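Hi V.,

You were right to ask for the full record rather than a summary. Here it is.
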Amino acid sequence: MDLNKYKDISPYRGSDVQEAVKRVVSDKDALLKVLAGFMPSETVEQRAMNAQYAEQMMKVFHSVKSYEDFQRDVSVGFFLPAVLNKSADAFTSSGLEGVSKDTAHLYMSNHRDIVLDFALIDYLLIKGDRVACEMAIGDNLLTNQYVTDIFKLNGGVTVKRTLPMREKYMESIRLSTYFVELITELKTSIWVAQKSGRAKDGLDITNPAIIKMLHLSQRRKDATTFSDVINNCSIVPVSVSYEYDPCDIIKAIEEVGRLRRGEQPKKKYEDLISISRGLKGYKGRIHIAFGEPLKGNFKTPDEVASEIDRQIHLSYKLWPTNCFAYDYLEKTDRFKDQYADFDSEAFLDRFKNQKEGVMEFALNSYANPVRSFLKAQAL
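Predicted structure:
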């Protein structure tokens, strides 16, 4: 694999790591600003704690020689435990035992949080002694050099979204080629969301175009069939379930507004605000379920996408928030045993005083995983 062909989109490697580390450690104020976006920083005590984290992280940075070092020592060593300690009641997982330690995979998950979905998957992979994982994320999030450095030091792969149609198509082919070569030649795993953007409505549906691009990227290899590509990528569906979505109201307001007024351009720093809220906001319990690697004779992208969806929907951890929202909207008591001790009144109060349609949209975003589960169960 010729990594030089992908230097503009791939994570930092070699001397680029050292140069990025120098830039990061030379600007402690920027690191404090980053931490303030991820960690509570309203009180004097919280800001003092962030300063301590910054000091600790600065020391660790000097030993970083690769993005694997950064993921292990910075993200997993400091950042994620702090985030979980401040914003989650419990973090559990299932299915990792079925993921080989010796095989690289394409992890494809549902997408709820811009940063945390991948970060928690990577946390589990590292703790479980699995193959290192890179992550694909849009260039719209790389707002300055400092953010870009942190992202690419953490195994980030840049998805170029702001290109003309023809260039965007060609870049998608190149990106997919990178994915396949990374897995099959470099034996390194990568994470991608099942579709572009977060599922604001709670409907986790894989975009078959992602699968199609994997095959198209290998079309010059005459002996490589569609099924060969899928099997070689060893796709692992992953289901990410948050009991509470810290961005549920924001997402509902955005989508209700979009449905009424049409697509609107994003405001400056809108994504960064969502990242901050998603990381700092209360999430209750979190569960991540790893599915079974896709193996078999697949004929079409739709067939692959359907299997990914089936696994994600069936393994999604249904919390009391999901079950109550479903029963409330469907006017049934089908899942009442699942939320017997749940404070439904407090849950509904989350959405009071919102504009018309926001509460209904938000509740449906919690109920839709239940609907998807029931549909997959009936297949």
